[in-house]
Specification:
heterodimer; A: 423 residues; alpha/beta; Rossmann fold; Ubiquitin-like (UB roll); de novo design (two linked rop proteins); five-stranded mixed sheet; 18 helices; 11 strands; 43% helix; globular; B: 157 residues; alpha+beta; Glutaredoxin; 2 domains; 7 helices; 4 strands; 46% helix
């Protein structure tokens, strides 16, 4: 398979403008800014079938088309580089090794929505990544790809790198906007959607790093070539971050629809130390775990994973072998969500901490059988009752761990300790 | 004598503010600048930043207490932040934390008496493929083993 997103990262000095250009970089940008109308760019991206790669999978071209063209307010394009979904590290490799692909993609998206001030909101912990991006921006400005009257086209665009300060919730687009407006990362009620009321009340589009990094290739080669890859509803390629009990962890680029079992056993080398697979989370810690006996029919695309009862999400594949205590794993994930809850909505603010406490109690030998249905009840009362999907993201995995591994939870409660054989 | 930015820091402040469509948006970069200039975001520093940002102090408190990377307490010279989320936990993060606690003689959340090290546990740092790992100030230290951790500690100035 020809690499699209990972095509540059192995090249020496791939992060520099000189190398990026020598490998065909910025030809797409020149074509866009000199020859294409914004609507043409949007139509091309719509035809490609590109869907948002942050986790929600919303069609990118469609999202852009919601920006009202005749609105006099300034438009904003924000690259979401707040990568924080546990198990996900694919944006980081692009930021550090192919920053110009992200910069070029951000520029193309900004042009499509007639934006003149764009931002890259990058998580605060990516100090190195921010420096790489700042350097890439400097090079792009010097080369005349950014700034005023770009390449004589009459189009102006400023691009700013903005560092966050440690908050998973700021990966949610409206929380990101609240943060960029100078406040706490509190999500906003939708509707209205950012496309009409975003940053400072102006039309705004937030796109993930991986989504934007695909744009130069799509413009260069044309939408049809992108749409020729993948499945009917999940076009193109996607980056998968593989971690946990696996022989070859790392970032992989796969055509959408690739079978999960072959991916784990062949491409990723299988489970090390002669151990057996126990469970795998396919899309980051927010997504329901799949038991080893459930993965046979699963293909890595949005529809197939959904059919299997989970979601593709960010493509963060977390592999757990037979030595894993699922009670402890569930507690770990619950603790993450309890820590990261922004606190705005009562069901999430209170419920996440309740679930964490109950899992902790079970893990430490003080659980009762009633605790399992109590967690399911709390989870059910969070889902759908919050301003943003964080509540669902916390509720789903808690319920899934119990549903998929109930016998283990019950044994753990009865024995008052891990129901695995000791290592 | 009340606290304020030097001339140079004021210039940087103005440059930062000029990049954004509204002054409020400069909140985080200004807080980072203030931390760099004054050492840590004490109540006094926060009050000053509120003044130059034309914002109520309460808003600053809200922001500083919201974000994990911002603190009103002083932090040691080397802020050791061990990732504790699922993929790192699966790969032995707890052992790394236990080792650091033993080596430094402090609990998680504490600073050594000489002010050299602060030990924290943090959530996913997007380095899951090279777990277990930790961040010390701006730098990531990945694929940790107990030996590597000891070497890293020895070599920190």
């Amino acid at each position: 398979m020809e690499k699209i997103l990972l095509r540059n990262i192995e090249a020496k000095d791939s992060h520099t403008l000189a190398v990026y250009k020598s490998r065909g970089g910025y030809q797409a940008w020149e074509k866009v800014v000199k020859q294409l109308a914004p609507e043409q760019v949007t139509e091309e991206v719509k035809s490609s079938g590109l869907r948002g790669r942050g986790g929600a999978g919303f069609p990118t071209g469609m999202k852009w088309s919601f920006v009202p063209k005749d609105n006099p307010k300034p438009k904003y394009l924000i690259c979401n580089a707040d990568e924080s979904e546990p198990g996900t590290f694919k944006d980081r490799i692009l930021i550090e090794r192919d920053p110009h692909a992200i910069v070029e993609g951000t520029m193309i998206a900004a042009y499509a929505i007639r934006c003149h001030t764009a931002f890259i909101y990058i998580r605060g912990e990516f100090a190195f990544g921010s420096r790489v991006l700042e350097k890439a921006l400097e090079e792009a400005y010097t080369a005349g790809y950014l700034g005023k009257d770009i390449l004589g086209s009459g189009y102006d665009l400023e691009l700013i790198v903005h560092r966050g300060a440690g908050a998973y919730i700021c990966g949610e687009e409206t929380a990101l906007i609240s943060s960029l407006e100078g406040g706490k990362g509190w999500p906003k009620v939708k509707p209205p959607f950012p496309a009409t009321h975003g940053l400072f009340g102006c039309p705004t589009v937030v796109n993930n790093v991986e989504t934007l990094a695909a744009l130069p290739w799509i413009i260069e080669r044309g939408a049809a070539q992108y749409a020729a890859l993948g499945t009917e509803k999940s076009k193109g390629t996607k980056l998968f971050s593989v971690s946990g009990h696996i022989q070859r962890p790392g970032v992989y680029e796969l055509e959408m629809g690739y079978p999960l079992k072959s991916f784990l056993e062949e491409d990723c080398g299988g489970i090390p130390n002669g151990k057996k697979l126990k469970g795998v989370i396919p899309g980051g810690a927010s997504m329901p775990v799949l038991r080893a006996d459930e993965i046979e029919p699963v293909r890595l695309d949005y529809e197939s994973v959904q059919q299997a009862g989970s979601l593709l999400g960010s493509g963060g594949v977390i592999v757990m072998d037979e030595t894993t205590c699922m009670v402890k794993a569930a507690w770990n994930v619950a603790r993450f969500f309890a820590h990261e809850s922004c606190g705005q909505c009562t069901p999430c603010r209170e419920g996440c901490h309740w679930m964490e406490k109950i899992f902790y109690r079970i893990e430490n030998g003080q659980g009762t059988m009633k605790d399992l249905d109590l967690i399911l009840s709390v989870s059910g009362n969070i889902m759908g009752n919050t301003i943003c999907p964080f509540g669902d993201a916390a509720a789903m995995p808690a319920a899934a761990f119990i549903k998929k591994y109930r016998p283990e939870f019950e044994a753990h409660i009865e024995q008052q300790k891990c129901a695995l054989l000791p290592l | 004598m009340s606290l304020e930015f030097t001339q140079q820091a004021l210039r940087q402040f103005n440059e930062i503010v000029a990049r954004y469509p509204k002054k409020d948006a400069a909140m985080l970069p200004v807080l980072y600048l203030a931390r760099q200039e004054f050492g840590h975001l004490s109540a006094e520093v926060i009050t000053y930043v509120a003044e130059i940002m034309d914002l109520p102090v309460a808003r600053l408190y809200g922001v500083v207490t919201f974000y994990t990377m911002l603190s009103m307490e002083p932090i040691g010279r080397h802020h050791i932040q061990v990732c504790r989320t699922l993929p790192c936990a699966l790969m032995g993060a707890e052992k790394i934390t236990a080792l650091l606690k033993a080596e430094l003689g402090i609990q998680v959340g504490e600073t050594t008496a000489d002010g050299k090290f602060t030990l924290s546990e943090v959530e996913c740092l997007a380095s899951c493929g090279t777990a277990p790992m930790m961040q010390i100030n701006d730098d990531y230290y990945e694929s940790l083993s107990e030996d590597r951790v000891e070497t890293i500690l020895e070599n920190l100035p």
